[in-house]
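dumping this here so i dont lose it
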């Protein structure tokens, strides 16, 4: 087994990977930018190397040289950054190190959406009706669109996250859509190539998790429903999907299994599908990385997916097959972002106070702590609140309890947004598609209160007792005039204020 791994990532996922490495007695190397020097991934790593302002989490050569210098044997890319970059995988291999992920060639094929489609068709997987190949001129596009029938979706072959994607509701929108998709694709990905698909409305976004070893063993681990998104940002994910019947699950798993096996895929991967209201399913794209929402699958299948990734990369056989996989209970994840819950604008800044929920069936994956500053330079994910239960009904109750218990002061978060969704009748009934959030927002059916803080969960009596204890604690640690002033201020008014407001006022001083 590897003795040391470099984690080419930051934040939540770097911490997530490190925790598993520690359990596997594998030493970890963090890399970090100056703005990340106070990050938990730096504090929790065995060794940490800072990179110059001119480099970054995308500097392949620096990362590989650092791994070599620090005597690591493998590199875990996490998600985002270099996770799906075939050149990075190639360079790592050439340096004599192990990339924890699939072959570069597989990533290159699946990273090209048009090639991925063609590959899946060749494996007998149902795909979204569409044209094969790159659009070279408008006549060709008009012909394909007429055959498919409008609306059509113009998609960039290098696309992701909805970029380079344009909807054409009718023929007169095709030319403009084509041109703007191509120019966006060129500026975002350096590749202007686009292709056409029929636009499917009212679908769910359902993805199947898979693990494959070097010896042809493939297991599927059920599905995740990721329909609750806004502007292609996933907000809530759950497993299983409320829409999927056992028969449909078996068929989607079989298709995924066959395709992954035929592709000689290795590692953890995900096949994304659209599922329509008649329960037809269509392949959309494959992700050749560990995903943010892998946690909900972990909770229902009982496997540590990062551990499985590392074991597979080290050449171990899975050691189990599909008949050993049992999917139990229900899991749901809310992404807690540093964002205004009303406008969804990023809201970076200092988290004066951070207290995650706990208790039965609650898991929080995060790199946050009281006093940590969410940087505007990276994504706005504070952490993932993941809950597990026997049934969806139990999970809904537990998630509401956990959201109410989650206390973050100093910055705005998506917690109030999640609370409104969790209270929505359609969501509770499991009735939603990818248009859910936008439709509800457009119809003004989501009454989200713009509050930077959440209702106080601690009763005033216990607060009063704790206020003096907190003040005493600051007194012994506080050194500046300013802090003394604040303590006096808290002591004079404090008895009537809530504990967590005061904790917010004094910042990360009390830990
Ligand atoms: C689609 C689609 C409907 N029809 N393709 C979104 C990002 C990328 N992964 C592909 N996506 C979609 N492709 C066809 N032919 C629906 C989505 C889609 C979506 C579209 C609008 C609003 C929210 C969405 C959420 C997930 C997927």
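and the seq i came up w/
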């Amino acid at each position: 087994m590897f003795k040391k791994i470099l984690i080419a990532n930051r934040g939540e996922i770097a911490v997530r990977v490190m925790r598993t490495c520690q359990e596997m007695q594998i030493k970890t190397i963090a890399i970090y930018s100056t703005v990340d020097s106070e990050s938990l991934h730096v504090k929790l790593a065995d060794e940490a190397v800072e990179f110059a302002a001119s480099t970054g989490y995308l500097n392949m050569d620096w990362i590989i040289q650092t791994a070599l210098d620090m005597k690591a044997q493998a590199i875990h890319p996490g998600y985002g950054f270099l996770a799906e970059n075939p050149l990075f995988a190639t360079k790592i291999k050439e340096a004599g190190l192990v990339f924890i992920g699939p072959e570069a060639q597989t990533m290159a094929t699946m990273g090209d959406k048009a090639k991925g489609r063609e590959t899946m068709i060749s494996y007998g997987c149902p795909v979204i009706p569409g044209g094969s190949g790159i659009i070279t001129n408008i006549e060709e596009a008009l012909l394909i669109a007429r055959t498919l029938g409008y609306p059509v979706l113009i998609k960039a072959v290098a696309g992701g996250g909805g970029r380079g994607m344009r909807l054409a509701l009718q023929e007169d929108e095709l030319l403009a859509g084509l041109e703007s998709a191509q120019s966006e694709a060129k500026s975002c990905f350096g590749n202007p190539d686009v292709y056409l698909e029929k636009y499917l409305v009212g679908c769910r976004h359902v993805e199947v998790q898979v693990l494959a070893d070097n010896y042809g063993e493939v297991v599927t681990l059920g599905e995740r429903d990721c329909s609750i998104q806004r502007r292609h940002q996933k907000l809530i994910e759950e497993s299983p999907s409320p829409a999927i019947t056992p028969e449909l699950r078996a068929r989607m798993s079989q298709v995924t299994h066959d395709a992954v096996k035929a592709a000689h895929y290795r590692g953890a991967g995900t096949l994304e599908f659209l599922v329509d209201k008649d329960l037809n399913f269509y392949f959309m794209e494959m992700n050749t990385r560990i995903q943010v929402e892998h946690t909900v699958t972990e909770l229902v299948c009982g496997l540590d997916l990062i551990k499985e990734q590392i074991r597979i990369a080290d050449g171990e056989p899975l050691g189990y097959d599909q008949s050993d996989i049992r999917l139990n209970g229900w899991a749901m994840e809310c992404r807690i972002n540093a964002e205004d819950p009303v406008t969804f604008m990023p809201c970076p800044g200092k988290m004066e106070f951070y207290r995650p929920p706990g208790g039965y069936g609650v898991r929080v994956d995060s790199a946050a702590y009281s006093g940590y500053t969410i940087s505007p330079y990276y994504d706005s994910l504070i952490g993932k609140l993941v809950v597990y239960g026997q049934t969806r009904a139990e999970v809904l109750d537990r998630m509401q309890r956990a959201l109410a218990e989650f206390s973050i002061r100093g910055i705005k978060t998506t917690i109030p947004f999640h609370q409104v969704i969790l209270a929505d009748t359609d969501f509770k009934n499991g009735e939603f598609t990818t248009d859910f959030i936008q439709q509800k927002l457009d119809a003004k059916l989501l009454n989200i209160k713009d509050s930077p803080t959440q209702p106080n969960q601690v009763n005033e009596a216990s607060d009063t007792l704790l206020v003096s204890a907190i003040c005493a604690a600051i007194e012994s640690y506080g050194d500046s005039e300013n802090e003394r002033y604040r303590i006096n201020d808290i002591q004079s008014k404090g008895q009537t204020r809530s504990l967590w407001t005061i904790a917010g006022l004094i910042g990360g001083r009390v830990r």
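The two ends are 37 Å apart (CA to CA).
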